[in-house]
Design brief:
globular; mainly alpha
């Protein structure tokens, strides 16, 4: 896989996962209904937690396809990456609640791998990618996400430095 396509896919991953933060910045607490409706799972813990909102999902679904078009990628690729990134994020939140990790609590790898690997696997439907490309891009995303999170925290944009 060529370097330019790798960079575009990484940018889309960052956009999809950053869109909920942008939504919070623009709308504060408006439209922040939790995806799980504050329901609890059979273990008494929230399904996902209060930080997984419909606002964040909608922002990811709107922004990521638009960025894909700007990057001269098919709009469907942007939409697929957004959907799978949000599903990966919900999956990691669901697992974290089962492990009794507080909402917005840190779980290195669990916070980054599902929300990057699932969309990359989806992108593999459109682009020729081998297992090494998936692993490399997921690892690069993990590092970039950790670095960018600290910068956004320092700028008072993120609530946590991770």
């Amino acid at each position: 896989m060529d370097l330019l396509l790798s960079a575009k896919l990484l940018f889309l991953l960052l956009a999809a996962n950053g869109a909920p933060i942008l939504g919070r910045l623009l709308f504060a607490e408006r439209f922040s209904q939790p995806v799980d409706g504050n329901h609890l799972f059979s273990d008494g813990q929230p399904l996902f937690g209060p930080s997984k909102t419909w606002r964040g999902i909608v922002f990811a679904l709107l922004i990521t396809p638009l960025i894909a078009v700007l990057l001269r990628l098919p709009i469907e690729v942007g939409l697929l990456i957004a959907v799978l990134a949000m599903l990966g994020d919900l999956l990691s939140s669901f697992i974290k609640r089962r492990l009794r990790i507080a909402p917005s609590g840190m779980a290195l790898g669990l916070d980054q791998i599902p929300e990057s690997l699932l969309p990359l696997l989806g992108a593999g439907l459109y682009f020729e990618m081998d297992w090494l490309a998936f692993a490399e891009l997921a690892l690069i995303f993990l590092v970039l996400e950790l670095l960018l999170s600290r910068v956004l925290y320092w700028l008072n944009i993120r609530k946590q430095p991770y």
